[in-house]
Amino acid sequence: MMGLTMCEGKFVGRDEIAMVPTPTATASWKPVPHSEVIDAVTDVVKAHRWTILDEQYGLARDGQRMFGMIRINKSSSMEWSRCIGIRNSHDRTIAVGLSAGISVHVCSNLCFGGSTVLKRRHTSRIELNGLVLEAVNALELEFLTLENVAEELKIDELNDDEVRASLVVAAERQAIPSCDILTVWKEFKHPRHEEFAEPTRWSLLNAFTETAKKYSPARADQCYRSLTRLFGLDGTPAELWKYSTALCPGTPSVGSGANDRVPRTPAASVAGFIN
Hints:
The chain is of the alpha+beta class. The protein is built from nine helices and six strands.
């Protein structure tokens, strides 16, 4: 992440997060130190006797926003490990929250399903641990939902026109910038991991998440949250197929001579060069 400004964000370790100052509380707002949120999640993980396999943290907006991921030795599949996503802010833009995620073993790609916000009015360290324990326990259903959706995504195959249309929708929904449409397309057509050689919805999701590895923490968080909705990773109806079908109702779509059917948005214009 060389060259990123602190506004864009950077990936850091726990020591650097601990150095971020916490704003003074007001009568109506009690900010929680980033490090205390991470420590509380760690304590709950240890209380469940899970092992932390990996962890990653990022700061954005001069440390005002924190994003994290703790990967644990728990899963319903040999293909991935579960991970707990963490979000917090000191600028009131993000509530303290946790999300259910998985990290695919072959590539370390991440994706996230449902999330839960810690409902609190005042937070001591003891209260925070209790709230995090409740939140982690509540994520169990979200983990199972995410893992079931992931298995279902492996079944349905996509043709090239459907993929092109999906890329347009993803860019329009700001999951990726338009300049990465071609990057995701190339990753889908020529995946660096043979496990994604089949042209399935699962392979397309991993083409997106492979691309997201180069993003700043805040941009990656936006990407993952958009993909959750687009692919229905939280168990809600997937938005991607509904909108991409509208772009190519017959099959011909972006880049295949169906310009009269496809709005020529910037993303659609870029996708028109894909072949």
